[in-house]
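Bumping my old thread because nobody answered last time. Still need a sequence for this structure:
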């Protein structure tokens, strides 16, 4: 069957390309409905990735956060019309130790492989997770990012010592907000501190116990565990502050993506016996856990719906490009396209 794929061929240039798709017995066909833009997509769209990376990965359809409607399942496991969250990573092997999102052979959509900006997505059945009927669809569009927050918090839970008195999250953007909302469900008795650069964004974290602008953190403030959600140039400062304020033997989970290496004060890491652990992306179990947490907590769903930023129905390639530009000018929240291209 011929399928239309909307690929980025160079920065800010998207073209329709027709591909021939074959439906295997383990595959389903999904019509994308709501697509959420990630900073990673914007780095490709605006050409911020190094030229050698762009030349290797383009042309490529963007977007790895999306839901869609099942239009065909040869095995009838999914019903036609079911809404599913599409998992962007596709593993080709199993390992008893290494999770699917860290396996070198796993393909990740919108990072070297076509993402979800397609007329139809031919998806391996185990890469789809049914979305409950009562979930807000625009919020569900960024369930992938929620699952990434789940992975970080579960990794922290598996690694940290017994001190769960307080958790500090550095980052007042989308990822920091999602992780903070989830932390209130996973660590309900832990004091939650948020550290950010923008007072107006910190105001959204009304459910946290305390918020601090990063240049006004009290010298004597200590935290038990920490998560870094800043990325970019802010990572180095955030990691340094975490090392300064975390208690000995604490664990810091690093989530922020940086294009350049950052300096780390290893002297204090060694002196305090800290654990610094990276986390990236997520797997099927994290999607399932995210849906489990949100199903049990209408309050968490409500907070995440506050993160829905700009939304727009797109029907043409110029409208897709305009939407990416609108997202660049948006200071808060997730940008969600209602996909009718």
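Sorry it took so long. Here it is:
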């Amino acid at each position: 069957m011929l399928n239309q794929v909307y690929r980025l061929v160079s920065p800010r240039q998207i073209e329709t390309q027709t591909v021939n798709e074959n439906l295997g017995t383990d595959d389903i066909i999904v019509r994308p409905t709501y697509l959420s833009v990630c900073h990673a997509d914007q780095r490709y769209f605006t050409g911020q990735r190094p030229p050698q990376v762009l030349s290797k990965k383009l042309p490529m359809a963007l977007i790895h956060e999306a839901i869609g409607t099942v239009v065909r399942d040869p095995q009838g496991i999914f019903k036609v019309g079911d809404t599913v969250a599409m998992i962007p990573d596709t593993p080709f092997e199993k390992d008893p130790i290494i999770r699917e999102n860290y396996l070198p052979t796993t393909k990740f959509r919108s990072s070297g492989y076509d993402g979800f900006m397609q007329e139809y997505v031919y998806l391996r059945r185990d890469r789809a997770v049914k979305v409950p009927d009562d979930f807000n669809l625009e919020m569900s569009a960024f369930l992938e990012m929620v699952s990434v927050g789940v992975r970080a918090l579960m990794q922290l839970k598996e690694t940290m010592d017994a001190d769960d008195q307080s958790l500090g999250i550095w980052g007042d953007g989308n990822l920091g907000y999602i992780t903070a909302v989830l932390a209130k469900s996973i660590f309900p008795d832990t004091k939650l501190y948020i550290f950010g650069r923008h007072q107006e964004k910190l105001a959204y974290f009304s459910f946290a116990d305390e918020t601090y602008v990063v240049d006004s953190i009290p010298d004597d403030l200590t935290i038990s565990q920490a998560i870094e959600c800043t990325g970019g140039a802010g990572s180095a400062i955030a990691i340094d502050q975490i090392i300064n304020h975390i208690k000995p033997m604490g664990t810091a989970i690093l989530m922020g993506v940086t294009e350049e290496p950052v300096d780390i004060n290893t002297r204090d890491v060694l002196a305090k016996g800290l654990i610094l652990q990276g986390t990236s992306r997520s797997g099927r179990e994290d999607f399932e856990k995210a849906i489990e947490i949100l199903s049990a907590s209408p309050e968490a769903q409500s907070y995440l719906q506050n993160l829905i930023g700009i939304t727009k129905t797109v029907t043409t390639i110029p409208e897709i490009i305009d939407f990416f530009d609108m997202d660049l000018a948006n200071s808060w929240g997730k940008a969600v396209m209602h996909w009718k291209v």
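The radius of gyration is 20 Å. Let me know if any region looks off to you.
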